[in-house]
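Encode chain A's predicted structure.
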Amino acid sequence: MTVIAPSATDHAPGKASAGAGSVALRALMRNRLAVLALILLALLLVAAVSAPLIAPYDPNAQDLLMRLRPPAWSDGGSGAHLLGTDQLGRDMLSRVIYGARVSLLVGAGAALLAGVIGTLVGLTSGYFGGWADRTLMRLADVQLAFPSLLLALAIVGFVGSGLWPVILVLGFTGWVSYARVVRSEVMSLRTRDFITEARAIGVTDATIMRRHLLPNVMAPLVTIGTLHVAAAVVAEASLSYLGLGVPKETVTWGAMLSDGQLYLGTSWWVAVFPGIALMLTSLAINITGDALRDVADPKAYRR
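Encoded structure for chain A:
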């Protein structure tokens, strides 16, 4: 990680920081697999945002006369439904497109919430140490004692299902990894000269954490956040598959997988297409996260 060493009174990114950013961007662009993953994520984002414009049908519109029609390229398929229809005659392409909205919203929302909580905990724990560090890290240990998905299942089962409850649950159960990484980075930075100088001239602890420590932990935070988005997308699909995610009237890939499992032997497309969408999304996010982790490594700048 490149440490930004500002003066004690001003933490403005200089030319060196901008130069490191441009080198990191070029290193990322040289990774063809990462570029392909970024393109796929961009297409998914565009599809999710513009779903009402590009989806050919209402995702919940039923047509029992067209139920379980195969994809357009199969025998019996229709060009009106490129990916076929499900057991209620709903268009699969429209449902896959709309399902991207929920998955990306839950993934990004959960990662953002977990990142904010984990960063605050990590900064406080690493900077102050002592009883604050011991108390916060014991809380993290207690949460780590429970599998995150099992804990999410228990909480959702208690508070009820819904889009925002799922985001809150996945956010509150995913902050520990952020907190531990930030704490480790802060503990190595708090004894640096620029922190000592800031304290000497009377800069408040809150300002030191905000202006001097937080910018120096952003690189690992971005990497962890990217990977957490993929984990949250899969977790949301798992909850929806079990009927504990968002309401049934909201289209999700997990619920589509749950509905389609009964038709795998006869109408494979009902479950396969949402499964492919979920797999590609998770894979693209993970590849992007791995590429960001490599770029954030100082060795990447010297290649």
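Residues 16-302 form a domain with the MetI-like fold fold (CATH 1.10.3720.10).
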